[in-house]
Design a protein that fits this description.
Elements: H1 2-19, H2 25-48, H3 51-54, H4 66-81, H5 88-91, H6 96-104, H7 106-109, H8 113-121, H9 128-158, H10 169-191, H11 194-215, H12 246-263, H13 273-280, H14 284-295, H15 299-315, H16 325-331, H17 337-348, H18 352-355
């Protein structure tokens, strides 16, 4: 029952992150981590319950999974603190130990079903070398990534100006919880059996859920509250709540304007605030604050206004006259007729049919 609790809770937290609006890179990484956590616990449950003995091809699917926990923690810390861009050239080398351990297990995976079961029944007999290699890689990798994460968190504490609205005590405390929890699991790996270890994993998942929902809005919102406009009676300087100075805000809006003019990213139908923030290497809350202050619109109003303006330009081109208005709207980033009609009237004061008079679409 304890194992099933951990599996169900891991899946639930992953689903919350999957459905979260305006996901940033950190949210996606944590979502993947929760799914891996569920898969790891699930593979252990199949072995403990002997279900995998009925379906021997399931035996050993979790051999290399422990190596993913440390590196996903590391990626999550980097993404949340914004200390570097997680491109493939940086990410892929970290998966080498995982790939190597999986490759070393190929002789076991190729065994007939009956022999696989015998190996498990005799506690890895004949594969003692693999078990020792596995333990060394897991422990070393685990502690290296935990210590590395602590170093990044410490650097964030000493350099709070690096990313003002992310490097806050709330974020750092949350990352410390995760790092300490994972460090505790590696201690259990060193001194206890699988039953105790996975009991600890279930406890860790429960704590992640409790802390992530109640103390910091990891799964149900953004870390920082998003004040779209300053309170009229507030004595705080402009942008104080967002962590941006007036100069930083001006610079960010200039970057945003250039991005829209040159790359026209508003034409991407599923563009989100989080994705746009990643392109600008800023936190979504900062970007939302600047859009609201500079344009007096929220993110969706701002993006759809740009789409309407682009549509009007395209619709006036002679070589586009044979296209329907809806086709041109889709070309400019709209993904439904109703959304197009709504924002077209908001911007122009007329419906498309009224605006274009006899032109039908």
């Amino acid at each position: 029952m304890l194992y099933l609790t951990g599996i169900i809770l891991s899946c639930f937290l992953a689903l919350l992150l999957l459905l979260k609006k305006d996901k940033a890179t950190a949210d996606r990484i944590l979502c993947i981590w929760m799914f891996i956590m569920a898969l790891h616990q699930g593979s252990n449950y199949l072995d403990v319950s002997k279900i995998s003995y009925t379906y021997p091809h399931l035996l050993g699917i979790g051999f290399a999974l422990p190596l993913l926990h440390g590196l996903l923690l590391h990626f999550y810390v980097l993404a949340l603190l914004g200390q570097r861009k997680l491109n493939w050239s940086y990410v892929l080398p970290h998966f080498i130990p995982f790939i190597a351990l999986t490759a070393l297990a190929m002789p076991f995976y190729q065994l007939p079903a009956a022999e696989k079961i015998q190996v498990f029944l005799h506690h890895g007999a004949g594969y003692e070398w693999y078990m020792l290699t596995q333990l060394c890689l897991i422990v070393v990798s685990g502690f290296v990534y935990v210590l590395w994460s602590f170093r990044l968190i410490h650097a964030g504490q000493k350099n709070p100006s690096q990313k003002p609205d992310v490097v806050k005590s709330q974020h750092l405390q949350w990352l410390k919880y995760l790092s300490l929890g994972l460090a505790g699991i590696w201690v259990l790996v060193l001194f206890f059996n699988d039953q105790v270890i996975f009991g600890g994993v279930t406890t860790l998942v429960c704590l992640i859920g409790i802390l992530g929902i109640n103390q910091v809005p990891v799964f149900v919102g953004n870390f920082m509250p998003e004040p779209l406009t300053p309170a009229p009676t507030s004595s705080l300087p402009r942008y104080a709540k967002s962590g941006l100075s007036a100069n930083q805000s001006d610079a960010l809006f200039e970057q945003l304007t250039q991005l829209m003019e040159k790359q026209k990213v508003y034409k991407k139908p599923e563009l989100s605030l989080g994705e746009l923030a990643e392109l600008l290497s800023v936190h979504p809350n900062s970007l939302s604050q600047v859009i609201n202050e500079k344009t007096e619109k929220n993110f969706y109003q701002y993006i759809n206004k740009l789409r309407v303006e682009a549509f009007l330009q395209v619709a006036a081109l002679p070589h586009k006259q044979h296209y329907s208005l809806l086709a041109l709207a889709f070309e400019c980033g709209f993904n439904s007729k109703s959304t197009f009609n709504k924002y077209f009237k908001t911007v122009t004061g007329e419906t498309p049919s009224e605006y274009f008079s006899l032109i039908k679409y």
